[in-house]
Each structure stands twice: as structure tokens, then as C-alpha cells.
Amino acid sequence: MTYRGRFAPSPTGPLHFGSLIAATASYLQARSQGGEWLVRMEDVDESRTRPGAADGILRTLEQYGFTWDGPIVVQTARKDRYRDALRRMIARGFAYPCGCSRAETAGAPYPGTCRDGLPPGKRLRVWRLCTTGEAIGFEDLVQGRQSMTMGGDFVLQRADGLFAYQLAVVVDDADQQITEVVRGADLLDSTPRQIWLQRLLDLPAPSYVHIPAAVHANGQKLSKQTMARPIAVEDPAPTLLAALNFLGQPAAAATSLGEIWERAIESWTVTSIPRVTRRLVSGGQIGSKPSRRAATFAM
Ligand code: GLU
Questions:
Q1: Ligand 1: which of 10, 12, 43 to mutate, judged by most atoms within 8 Å of the beta carbon?
Q2: Cβ < 6 Å from ligand 1: which residues?
Q3: Which contacts of 270-274 are long-range, i.e. CB under 8 A and separated by 24 or more positions?
Q4: Nearest by Cα to 147 from 160, 134, 128
Q5: pLDDT of 108 above 60
């Protein structure tokens, strides 16, 4: 079977260093095995989409020398597929309407209030998937053997009618015949839910590799919400070398972007990726020595 990997950015802002790392790792994992690498625009949460962000991300990927296979898949064009999957789950009794408000369900795992039917006075707000308390196990090439619970019945379709990320990603990965998912460790706790959904939908499970998350010096997750800086587009080589370094790969100085990629594909070793979270310190200053929990990474 051909190796098929993917990069699935959400078009909520410009590409930042955290997403560059996910793109780089998934790309090298695919290309070093002669596999295909697909790009999917994850705009399923339309409330977070920013105009122009998708184009900006694609242009940045091009400037960094990434090349992808096939057309870009866009989630907002695939709502029929998500609706089909939801209908199948409803027909088989795995999904149920829930009328609990956000305030009623905040914080703790959902206790299953509406599982046996909407209680009097409640109206359908969201569709949830039945889960069990059982742990879902999977082998992660970087994080090692994982065994995690799903954290309660989760949402497949939101109160605003939008399909949930968990549903979209599972349907997309199956339709695109993705054999391995390489992504940031911030998504690690989504994986048991996705595997559960794959089982209920009778879909094959890809393998998983979760690369360490990059966080701000104060420990906050790098994201558009925390104002992670967009990466440089004028002179991508130093930032690409920093990404390779972050991933524990040898990144020798090279004359061109093409040469950096060539060497990176040749020497790519997925098992050299460190497991730990790394704090980014800007200005080239190296912080404290790597610890087991968080290492500092200068860029
Ligand atoms: N769209 C998600 C993000 O940008 C990634 C989802 C995934 O790789 O499964 O964080």
C-alpha cells in the first residue's frame, strides 16, 4: 500500500512556527518513504475562518519549497460526506440528540443526560456520539504506546449546525486514504475519539505520530489566538533549518532550499524527534537546559 500522509491546516491566520513543524514532519515522513503528501484545508469551523488565510498558508508552503500531491481538499465543500456519516451513526443508534446547554456541559465529561432521549423541556441542540469508559490504545511512533479514554460522549454536529472537527477529520482521512497521520501533540487527546469513530463507521485506522508541541516561553500553546508570529516568507531557509533542528534532525547549512530538502529527506529519522514540549525563546538566546518536561528552543 502506498504511504499517504497529509497536512491539515485550519485557515484561521498565517502559518506559524508550530504549524510549520507539523507540515515539515508530515512531509518528510511521507517523502522519505516515497509516499504521497496531501494538503487539506480544515475550514469546517467556519466561525474561525479568516478571509485570505487559506491562500496565505498555501503561498507560504510554496515559498518553503513544499510540493503536494493532488488537489487541495476543502472541508466546506464536503458537508454532504459529513452529513452521510452522521446519518449512519444516527441510523445505527450510536448518535443521539442532546439538548443540554453549553453551561450545563462545561468542564466535566458529558454525563450522558440526553442519551436515553431528550428530557422534557429540552430541544435538540447538538448531536453526540455514544462512547464507553474503555481506554483506546494505539501505538504512536514518537510518543510511544498510548492508552486513553474518550472523555465522555462528544459532539458530532454543533448547535450552530456546523459539523465537529472530530467527525470531519475522520471522514476526510478515510476518503483521502491517509495511511498515517503526523500532527502536533496538542491533538493527542483527540486521537482516541477519532479511532472510536473510525470503528463505529467501519473505517480503517491510520497510524499516528504526534510531534512535540511548541509553546511560548511562558508555556502557552503556540496558536493564532496567542499571537504566534507568522513565519518569515522572504528568507525561508533559516526558519526551515530551525524547524528541522526542533524535530531533532541534522540540519547542515546548505546552499539552497532544494538542497536543504534533499538532505532532510535523505537523513530523516522519525525516532529522533524528541518527545518533550519545547519553549520557544526568540532572539536566538538559548534558555535552560532541556528537562524531561520542557526544553527551551531558540529561534
Ligand atoms: N486542523 C488542525 C489544526 O490546524 C489539524 C488537524 C489534524 O491534523 O488532524 O490544528
A1: 10
A2: 8-10, 42, 169, 183, 187
A3: 270/25, 270/29, 270/141, 270/142, 270/209, 271/141, 271/142, 272/247, 272/248, 273/25, 273/142, 273/209, 273/211, 273/212, 273/247, 273/248, 274/212, 274/248
A4: 134
A5: yes
Q: Which atom of ligand 1 lies nearest, measured to the CA of 169? A: 9
CB 172 within 8 A of CB 208: no
Task: Name the strand (E) or helix (H) holding 154.
Answer: strand 154-157
Q: Which of 7, 21, 37, 42 to mutate to test the pocket of ligand 1 (most atoms within 8 A of CB)?
A: 42
Which of 169, 172, 226 to probe ligand 1 with, by most ligand atoms within 8 A of CB?
A: 169
Instruction: List pLDDT tens digits, range 26-61.
Output: 999 999 999 999 999 999 999 999 999 999 999 999
Determine the distance separating the centroid of ligand 1 and the alpha carbon of 10, expressed in angstroms. 6
- Mention every residue, 6+ apart, whose C-beta is less than 8 A from residue 107: none
Q: In sequence order, what are the residues at sequence separation of 6 or more whose Cβ sits closer than 8 angstroms to the Cβ of residue 218?
A: none
Asked if residue 229 has pLDDT above 50, the reply is yes
CA 204 to chain centre: 18
Instruction: Extract the C-alpha cell encoding 230.
Output: 507568522
* Residue 179 CA, ligand 1 centroid: distance in Å: 16
Q: What is the mean pLDDT of residues 199-219?
A: 87
Å from CA of 9 to ligand 1 middle: 5
Tell me whether residue 216 is exposed, middle or buried, using C-beta atoms within 10 angstroms of its C-beta: 0 to 12, 13 to 18, 19 or more.
middle
At 16, the amino acid letter reads H
